[in-house]
Amino acid sequence: MFIERATDKEIPKGAIRLTSEEVYEYMIDLIHKWPSSTEIWALKHGNPILACAVVVSSSVILNFYRRQLKLKNYGRFTLFLPVVLTPSILNQMYQTTKTTKSILLQKDCSTCITTQSMFIQLGTGIIYPMLGAIAGTYMFGTKMNTFILSSNGPAIINEFALHLMKTSRPLYNRLTGFVIGHVLLSFAISYYQMENLDFLRFKMMQQQNEDIENLKQSKRINKLPHSN
């Protein structure tokens, strides 16, 4: 079955109308059942790859602040869940329900889709883990007395900010690398997902044309006179 977006005036006679959700479910089912994973690898495995990239950058960020605040093994699992696991799940969820869905439904332009994918990747792979790691490790550092603020009142904020900037400085180069890596990876995955969709649409049109031709041949055979 070939699927195409069209207005009411463009819908041909005999065409089956489907809602956006029905089209999306049909395409997802088609992708899952596609016999060759290599032909549509980005649609099948692209979002898990992006989620794995989030796990890598989140883990590096968390481990960096844990070492800086000398937490050793204290709170390792407690911090892993919100700082590493949660953003990877959010990444998979948002990339699937936002980016991939837009691609399959052909709702947005390619630039909009790739930009959206980049923002999701940076938000879940850099910003969220940074905020979570800083909040979590400094909280545990305060409890373990590996981080102590000597100031009182409003001056505490300045002291904390200065300590954070000094502590974070060795991480800047790695953060720059992660930002570039996430941007390039999300662009590549979304690009190849759109390429995979074009491949699927071509195959669907090809199959539909073959089915129409077979139907025409069947009708011609049935119209031929049969001898006893």
UniProtKB/TrEMBL annotation:
Keyword GTP-binding assigned: no
Superkingdom: Eukaryota
Subcellular location: Mitochondrion membrane
Transmembrane segments: 77-94, 118-140, 175-194
Keywords: Membrane, Mitochondrion, Transmembrane, Transmembrane helix
Mode of membrane association: Multi-pass membrane protein
Xref: Pfam families: TMEM126
A GO cellular component annotation in the UniProt record: mitochondrial membrane
GO biological-process terms attached to the record: mitochondrial respiratory chain complex I assembly
Protein's recorded name: Transmembrane protein 126
Organism: Cinara cedri
